[in-house]
Amino acid sequence: MNIELLIYAIIIIIIVYIIFKFVKKLIINTILGLLLLYGLNLTIFSANPIPINVITIIISALLGIPGVLALAILNYFNIL
């Protein structure tokens, strides 16, 4: 058995595992962030809702719940 091929296979498996782990976290953050944005728009910010667009989705996906809270604070002070 060629040892170099085995080392390359192990490196590829590790890289794929790290990518899947990041994508899983990104999907979970996106779903939780959108649900929180939707819930905030229905309750607290029903008069002046937080816009759900590409930028707010990216912020909620990358930053998660702290990102949604930052969006809520910006919307509360009419900066968003």
Number of helices: 3
Q: Specify the overall morphology.
A: rod-shaped
- Quote the distance from N terminus to C terminus: 60 Å
Domain count: the total is: 1
Share of helical residues? over 70%
Q: Which structural category do the helix and sheet elements fall into?
A: mainly alpha
Explain this structure to me?
The chain has one domain (3-76). It is an all-alpha fold and 80 residues long. Helix content is 78%, strand content 0%. It is rod-shaped. Helix 1 crosses helix 2 (54-63) and helix 2 crosses helix 3 (65-76). The protein has three helices and no strands.
Detail the topology: elements first, then pairings:
Elements (H helix, E strand, L loop, with lengths): L2 H40 L11 H10 L1 H12 L4
Helix pairs in contact: 1-2, 1-3, 2-3
List keywords for this structure.
mainly alpha, 3 helices
Write a concise synopsis of the structure shown.
This protein is mainly α and 80 residues long.
